[in-house]
Amino acid sequence: MSVHRRCAPCAVPPHVLERIARNGNDEQRSWALSTMAQDASHRTVRVHNAFLRAAQRTAAPPRLTPTSGPTSGPRRTVGDAKEAEELPGVTVRAEGDNPVDDTAVNEAYDGLGATFEFFRATYGRDSIDDDGMALLATVHYGSHYDNAFWNGRQMVFGDGDGELFNRFTVSLDIIGHELAHGVTEDEAQLMYLNQSGALNESMSDVFGSLVRQFQRGETAEQADWLIGASLLTDAVQGVALRSLKEPGTAYDDPVLGDDIQPAHMDDYVRTNADNGGVHINSGIPNKAFYNVAIALGGHAWERAGQIWYEALRSPQLRPNATFRSFATVTTRQAQVLFGADETKSVREAWAAVGISV
């Protein structure tokens, strides 16, 4: 493994970028190194923004009644960085505007709307913070920037390098994944380190996949359970960045290397890189969720997703949660929300990845 490097929640994990920097051609190596350098600075910004939002939550008076769901639609703004690295860029499309002659702008706009609608329609959530937060995205960030990220206030999309990665707005589940980091940040403040960090990444993979399934009307059996399926170019030997169905099988490429995500605690990766392997070991809770979704059947967002969402909101979920403690919370939520059959399915799903409740 590489030396320890703190990372921000980004679509492309640092270990993949490191492999490109080692194995790619001169241009690919240059793009990967530039992306890695920018990702390091984004983490600082995200931590700062997270502290500001936490302070605002603390200062705000408590709600006297539970939220009853959003009363209006999303408030979207898409900016164009024009290959610079300044945010939020020039506003090119705002809420209610017609589509423009820029595919990335329209994809970002539609992806923000699809994610907002998913959380509104399935769980009655009013935007990222459940309080009507405006949704801001910036496209065309940087030159050949091979990533997308949530910085604590907005979404940012690179155009990719065109050789290994397509533009990052092309994948709805990536948009849902990154915005879900904001939901997790708002609800549970899971520490971005070791198992709690892997849970943080897994929650984003789960809801990113569900956003796409919801838009397509797919059942758990019909879904491909891939994250970033349209992100890789045809030059890459792989199908996506990650697979919830079969962690460790998403790609095996001379430049990107092989997918090292484990699907069972027997293969848990202990490392100082990637904040303790947050993008790697997330394969284990990902597989557990897939197991639950398949066992319960139907639309995964209806029961499996509801259990995971309420577990994320539960006061029993601590910022330093482990896989086992999160498994316990999901089991309790299954019992509270549904009953014995669902509880049994959740318990067996975790047992299948080596975690007993």
Automatic annotation (TrEMBL):
Keywords, in A-Z order: Hydrolase, Metal-binding, Metalloprotease, Protease, Secreted, Zinc
Principal EC category: hydrolase
GO cellular component: extracellular region
Residue ranges crossing the lipid bilayer per the database entry: none
Cofactor needs: Zn(2+)
Annotated ranges, domain Peptidase M4 C-terminal: 188-355
Localization terms from the record: Secreted
GO-annotated biological processes: proteolysis
Family of the protein in this entry: Belongs to the peptidase M4 family.
Organism per entry: Parafrankia irregularis
GO MF, one example: metalloendopeptidase activity
Active site: 178, 279
Enzyme Commission number(s): 3.4.24.-
Domain named Peptidase M4: residues: 102-185
A Pfam family it matches: Peptidase_M4
Primary localization: secreted
InterPro entries membership: Metalloprotease_M4, Peptidase_M4, Peptidase_M4/M1_CTD_sf, Peptidase_M4_C_domain, Peptidase_M4_domain
UniProt keyword annotation of Chloroplast present: no
Record's function text: Extracellular zinc metalloprotease.
Region Disordered, annotated ranges: 55-87
Alphabetical list of PANTHER family matching this protein: NEUTRAL METALLOPROTEINASE, PTHR43579
Annotated protein name in UniProt: Neutral metalloproteinase
